[in-house]
Amino acid sequence: MQKKKNIAIVGSGLVGSLLAIYLRKQGHGVTVFDRRPDVRTVEFSGRSINLAMSNRGWKALAEAGIEKEIRQLALPLDKRAMHVVDKPVYFQKYGNDGEAIYSISRGVLNRKMIDLAEEAGAVFRFEEKVWDVDMRSAQLFTGESEKSEWKEYQFDLVFGADGAFSRIRHKMQRQSRFNYSQHFIDVGYKELTIPANADGSHKLDNASFHIWPRGEFMLIAMPNLDGSFTCTLFLPFEGKVSFESLQTEEQADDFFERYFPDIKDEISNLKRDFFKNPTSAMVTIKCFPWSYYDKITLVGDSAHAIVPFYGQGMNAGFEDISVLYSKIEKYGDDWESIFEEYQNERKPNADAIAELSYRNFIEMSSKTADPSFLLRKKIEKKFTNKYPEKWIPLYSRVTFSDKSYSEALKIGDWQRQVMDEVMKMPNISEDWDQPEVEEKILELIQKKKPESIS
Amino acid sequence: MQKKKNIAIVGSGLVGSLLAIYLRKQGHGVTVFDRRPDVRTVEFSGRSINLAMSNRGWKALAEAGIEKEIRQLALPLDKRAMHVVDKPVYFQKYGNDGEAIYSISRGVLNRKMIDLAEEAGAVFRFEEKVWDVDMRSAQLFTGESEKSEWKEYQFDLVFGADGAFSRIRHKMQRQSRFNYSQHFIDVGYKELTIPANADGSHKLDNASFHIWPRGEFMLIAMPNLDGSFTCTLFLPFEGKVSFESLQTEEQADDFFERYFPDIKDEISNLKRDFFKNPTSAMVTIKCFPWSYYDKITLVGDSAHAIVPFYGQGMNAGFEDISVLYSKIEKYGDDWESIFEEYQNERKPNADAIAELSYRNFIEMSSKTADPSFLLRKKIEKKFTNKYPEKWIPLYSRVTFSDKSYSEALKIGDWQRQVMDEVMKMPNISEDWDQPEVEEKILELIQKKKPESIS
């Protein structure tokens, strides 16, 4: 058992709340600051993408002893439902039988986790804005505004769980030799809603992640417990078909009529919500170091914000807490070693999932409708079904395992090289089902594996 | 002639001062803010690397009508003097006859440029700290500290010339969709001095840029007008031979004795200065956009800080001002178009010189002593001497021309590919001087040129 510490967590989002539960179970004093109001008391913002909890997330929740409560809030999705223009909907299974991702509303989950953290004894200070941190002494300064009177708090440790635009990281960034990057993609997103049927049932299959891929843009929909779907439209900010080009209700209506005729009429208050809901940007943030001696460390988006196209943002943040927890078990009261090993182990994995998420942005919007890409997937699928121990698809490694993201990236790159060779085979589009394709793969994976893979 | 504007420049460094002169000559009201004291009234900081003015710098100074004054402060260096262990010093000419880079002390140059800007009518407000800028209204806020009472200034335009850790950019960075990165290299530097001989003459050849390459680290020396040399030691922060490993005067003394025996005794107060002078970090900073409508724009290091290994930091900053000037001539009072075209034209060039400078960091420290690298240079040199119109070396494109940095990078990459092929020729180290090598190069450059190169 560790010596009791007086610990501050800045940020009451998903990762901050989970960390609060962990640390309370270790017996520490925990105060959670958030500049925003308590999400349990306000309507959720209308700028969220539904979450997809997968293996890493569940593992961290189980370690905190709260998996069961959270399972009740989640709907399993075992496949993609592809809505391609002028074709019937078709389905792509995510993994093996019993493997699924779990759709959860961010608002619902966050409220529940704050409840659980409070039950565990964490103190929440909402609408209290942290403006500065003294990194050497772990003092926090809060107040109405940057220029108002500040209140001073003394802690033993401070965790920055305050998201992509973290104030704690912002302070660390002014140190010399702090590496940092923020890179926005040129695509924004907007939340829309498909309400439940009158009887509370879902209007679309509720065990599917629905995608309407349209090349440069796409619509997705994920089910909620109440029968509704949270939809997200991903669309370039500027250009021929873009948020900028949709300025009037008529233009928005025409856009949906043209590109999403099968679902347009199911979206509630389409024209109103399109202009009422904000258009949000997406950013990849990388930085290093994440820690300052035994005083400060960053967790979740504040350390590694990623674009949402692999559904791993929350999962990666929760896995940070799993890793911290394992280092606490290893090092006990030596917080400097805990933080040091945590950041060194997590950093390459955070970079890997950032890269994978960015690549999936390209893949989901453009390639999911590309015949050659679909053929690849079909060949891979057949092979992995026959030789599950020889070929775990990249998506499964990321989503249904807790092996490191960096290993997944490395093996994924190697698998892509193998498939590049396979796709060069003559008449592959006709003969993809023939035994020589399978033999070719077996031969190729025999020949060369990336380093450090057994 | 433009309509008179009331313009603020934040930062009285080299680029800020040059901009002040330009804008005063256009008739604008110019106020320059600097949080530090007037450099003319204080000793310079002991953390500078001497500057190497080259073609782009001179061009911008000429356009501002101050080239002649600055020439008097500069010493031409037409070659590198290589001090390799256990070999006599040897020389590498930089370019053709008459081509040279010019060594100038940063302090001497900055003082002179502030004098010239004041003579031109710019108002300098030293020790006045800018804490905030309202980007829409071009208001500046200054004060003793971030939390003190602030003074408010209303301007028409604000230029951020406040260096790598720019406060103005810092404010822009909080905008959504602002891309930003800062990346520190693991090598630091420290300034040292070789004083003049008793008669005021230089202790080393004063028309050379002196380099002591030692693989992972190196020492350089550049002459000053007063007979002294400003030396810079580049050394990893951590590792076997590093700043971290040199903790005592004895260790520092042993280090110089072992690696720089030929020059050690000429460095004044070596042991004292080594510990008195700060160890400085080097960073590459990239961001975009640089401008905010017709209100704000960034120039110099605040927009594109680079590592110093191509000697182009100041030159690139001065070239920003040249480009701004050309856009002012083109667009007159349309400041939004001036800023827009300025940033779009400069950004790829800033990225290119960042890349070239980073590569030279590798090249200068490790490759300048590598026989195969030197052989390449020798072959290139011979070829370019015979066919000067067919092969302008990369260094000359960057240093002795004002063609764009991005073109230089592209052609440089293509030349490297050509030389890679040449170096694969059998017995190249013996036969490098033979006609077939020349024929091979002619054949290769005939075959393929990068796009957009005539």
TrEMBL record, chains A, B:
It catalyses: L-kynurenine + NADPH + O2 + H(+) = 3-hydroxy-L-kynurenine + NADP(+) + H2O. The keyword NADP applies. InterPro entries: FAD-bd, FAD/NAD-bd_sf, Kynurenine_monooxygenase. Its cofactor is FAD. Pfam families: FAD_binding_3. Pathway: Cofactor biosynthesis; NAD(+) biosynthesis; quinolinate from L-kynurenine: step 1/3. Belongs to the aromatic-ring hydroxylase family. KMO subfamily. This is Kynurenine 3-monooxygenase. The gene is kmo.
